Automatic annotation (TrEMBL):
This is MarR family transcriptional regulator. GO terms for biological process: response to stress. Residues 2-138 form the HTH marR-type domain. It comes from Amycolatopsis iheyensis. The keyword Transcription applies.
């Protein structure tokens, strides 16, 4: 990938993350990172901790630390994988799913509405982003 494009993509991701943090941190006691983790888990559950770490581009120890307060708060359930005793499976609880939908979905809707109101071709952006992700994963 062109170094300039990689820098631009990184900058866009960082700006989106910062905007999301400003809107969500502290809401219902959840941080943006926790909301993002819950949303990612909803997309891929049940997931091993390793798969969840890969999906969020963080280390296995980082995901383990991030899951602790969510498990203690009853938002995720972590169990030993019956097929492999050294793996742990993570799933959302009903409370975790509700927390994501109460916090993450409104954020998504807010960003989408702002982009559409500004005349940004949101649907095309979404299609292109998915296509880019597929290309990068295949690389």
């Amino acid at each position: 990938m062109d170094e300039g494009l990689a820098d631009l993509l990184h900058r866009v991701v960082m700006l989106i993350g910062e905007a999301a943090r400003r809107r969500t941190d502290g809401q219902d006691g959840l941080t943006y990172s926790q909301i993002r983790l819950l949303g990612t888990l909803e997309d891929i559950e049940p997931a091993t901790q390793h798969r969840l770490a890969q999906a969020l581009s963080v280390s296995d120890p980082a995901i383990s630390r991030a899951l602790r307060p969510l498990e203690e708060g009853g938002l995720v359930q972590i169990v030993v994988d019956p097929a492999h005793a050294r793996r742990r499976l993570v799933t959302l609880t009903d409370a975790g799913r509700k927390a994501f939908h109460d916090n993450g979905k409104p954020l998504y809707d807010e960003f989408r509405a702002a982009l559409v109101a500004a005349g940004f071709p949101y649907e095309r952006y979404l299609e292109d982003t998915f296509r880019l992700a597929e290309l990068l994963e295949a690389d």
